[in-house]
């Protein structure tokens, strides 16, 4: 498998490129709209054809690049079926795999950060979105989030994977790139196996996080698979822009 981890600095989002060496097809997990040209250039550089964009959930901190990618190269938009987005081409359900050549993507419904959140397991790695971060997790105080639900998602589904499975999250805010199931079990200060459900609920209830500054634009834009709002304040313009031209010609 061809694999690249790509970074968007404004929201500290990781996008993952997976390519099948047999078919020459590729998919992108959690693409960001402002990085579409970069992502397509990387796909082209590797001699691949983009077949799918795949989102883990309806993001609140950035707008997905799914729609712009489809407009540019005709790839299919893949999202969790739970969210029932009308712009979706391939709705994914748990236990219904996405096959792309030699690559099998297994969806795992991992609600708690959002109610429609999915992680994707592929071979020796799992793409955990915001459900499980390196030494942390996504917040649970909006988009029907729930701390107890997230606790069960991580413990019952993600921590049920083999210890040596690599953990690739949607974000890291300190420059880290990868973890493992064993590492998160042992040392995650919120969700490690030494923590009880009640301890986790108390931690999440006392985070005192600020209201997400982009959520009021990101969520409706992402329900349309990546639509930039026309009334975006100048201070937030860096989060969202339309492509001026397709780098594919």
Overview of the molecule:
The chain is built from six helices and twelve strands. It has 249 residues and is of the alpha/beta class. The protein has a single domain, classed as 4-Layer Sandwich (Metallo-beta-lactamase, Chain A), CATH 3.60.15. Strands 1-2-3-4-5-6 form a six-stranded mixed β-sheet. It has a six-stranded mixed β-sheet with strand order 7-8-9-10-11-12.
- Terminal Cα separation, in Å? 27 Å
Profile the largest sheet. Answer: 6 strands, mixed
Question: Which architecture does the CATH hierarchy give at level 2?
Answer: 4-Layer Sandwich
CATH homolog superfamily: Ribonuclease Z/Hydroxyacylglutathione hydrolase-like
pLDDT averaged residue by residue: 93
Tally of separate helices: 6
**Strand content range:** 15-25%
Question: Which secondary-structure class do the elements indicate?
Answer: alpha/beta
Helix content: 10-25%
- Strand order in the sheet with the most strands: 1-2-3-4-5-6
Please give the radius of gyration in angstroms.
17 Å
Protein name: MBL fold metallo-hydrolase
Pfam families: Lactamase_B
Keywords: Hydrolase, Metal-binding
GO molecular function: hydrolase activity; metal ion binding; sulfur dioxygenase activity
């Amino acid at each position: 498998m061809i694999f690249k981890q790509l970074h968007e600095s404004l929201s500290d989002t990781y996008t993952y490129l997976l390519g099948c060496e047999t078919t020459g097809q590729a998919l992108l997990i959690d693409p960001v709209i402002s990085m579409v040209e970069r992502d397509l250039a990387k796909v082209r550089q590797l001699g691949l054809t983009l077949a799918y964009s795949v989102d883990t959930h309806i993001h609140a901190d950035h707008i997905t690049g799914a729609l712009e990618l489809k407009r540019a190269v005709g790839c299919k938009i893949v999202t969790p079926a739970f969210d029932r987005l009308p712009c979706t081409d391939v709705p994914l359900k748990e236990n219904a795999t996405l096959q792309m050549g030699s690559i099998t993507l297994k969806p795992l419904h991992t609600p708690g950060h959002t109610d429609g959140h999915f992680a994707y397991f592929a071979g020796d790695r799992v793409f955990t979105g915001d459900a499980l971060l390196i030494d942390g997790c996504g917040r649970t105080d909006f988009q029907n989030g729930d701390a107890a639900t997230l606790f069960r998602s991580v413990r019952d589904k993600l921590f049920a994977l083999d210890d040596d499975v690599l953990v690739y999250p949607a974000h890291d805010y300190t420059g880290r790139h990868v973890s493992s199931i064993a590492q998160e079990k042992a040392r995650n200060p919120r969700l490690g196996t030494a923590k009880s459900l009640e301890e986790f609920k108390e931690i999440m209830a006392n985070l005192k996080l600020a209201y997400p500054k982009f959520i009021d634009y990101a969520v409706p834009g992402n329900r349309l698979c990546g639509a930039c709002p026309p009334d975006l304040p100048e201070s937030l313009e860096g989060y969202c822009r339309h492509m001026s031209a397709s780098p594919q010609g």
